[in-house]
Amino acid sequence: MNATYLPADYIPVLIQLGLALGFIVTTMIVTHSIGPKRNSQKKDDPFECGIPVQGDARTPISIKYFLIAILFVLFDVEVIFLYPWAVNFKGLGMTGFIEMVLFMGLLLAGFYYVIRKGVLKWE
């Protein structure tokens, strides 16, 4: 079965795309043109949970914070791989077990490297 598609076959998709874009553009234009335009110093101030703004938001943050956050995400993703493996443990057999031992070995090697480098020591 050899299916050939002509450019005319995509006309419904292009019409739907055009209608969607037209709706978005029309909605944005109408809301900006008929919406209220009342600006004041109090209204334009940044609002954060009712707490008055103090200082500059661009203060430097320690790189350790970001490094620990990235490591948390990296090592937390293992659960995504461990859960399906645990659910289907018997069905995967010895091959699945060996693959998971290899995966956990690489993961623990990375964790050992992080600990040896002292990345998790917070001063």
Automatic annotation (TrEMBL):
InterPro entries membership:
NAD(P)H_OxRDtase_bac/plastid, NADH_UbQ/plastoQ_OxRdtase_su3, NDAH_ubi_oxred_su3_sf
Q: How does it assemble?
A: NDH-1 is composed of 14 different subunits. Subunits NuoA, H, J, K, L, M, N constitute the membrane sector of the complex.
This protein's membrane topology, according to the annotation, is: Multi-pass membrane protein
Keyword Transmembrane helix listed: yes
Q: Which domain of life does the UniProt lineage start with?
A: Bacteria
Record-given protein name: NADH-quinone oxidoreductase subunit A
| Membrane spanning stretches | 13-34, 65-86, 92-115
Compartment list: Cell inner membrane; Cell membrane; Membrane
Q: Where does this protein chiefly localize?
A: membrane
Alphabetically sorted, this entry's keywords are:
Cell inner membrane, Cell membrane, Membrane, NAD, Quinone, Translocase, Transmembrane, Transmembrane helix, Transport
Q: Which GO terms describe its molecular function?
A: NADH dehydrogenase (quinone) (non-electrogenic) activity; NADH dehydrogenase (ubiquinone) activity; quinone binding
GO CC terms: NADH dehydrogenase complex; plasma membrane
EC number per UniProt: 7.1.1.-
Looking at the Swiss-Prot or TrEMBL record, what is one Pfam family this protein matches? Answer: Oxidored_q4
Q: Which catalysed reactions does the entry list for this protein?
A: a quinone + NADH + 5 H(+)(in) = a quinol + NAD(+) + 4 H(+)(out)
Name the protein family: Belongs to the complex I subunit 3 family.
Q: Which residues form the signal peptide?
A: none
What's this chain's function? NDH-1 shuttles electrons from NADH, via FMN and iron-sulfur (Fe-S) centers, to quinones in the respiratory chain. The immediate electron acceptor for the enzyme in this species is believed to be a menaquinone. Couples the redox reaction to proton translocation (for every two electrons transferred, four hydrogen ions are translocated across the cytoplasmic membrane), and thus conserves the redox energy in a proton gradient.
Q: Which organism is it from?
A: Spirosoma linguale (strain ATCC 33905 / DSM 74 / LMG 10896 / Claus 1)
